[in-house]
Amino acid sequence: MPFIIYLDGEQYFDALHRLSLWVHHVLMPAYGREVSSQAPWCSRWWEHREAVAQLYGLWMAWSDLTGPDCKLTGPANFHRDYLIPTMESIRSPTGPFAGCKAGHREKEAPYAEIFPPEQFS
Question: Which of 44, 76, 78, 83 is the most exposed place for a label (fewest CB within 10 A)?
Answer without folding.
Answer: 76
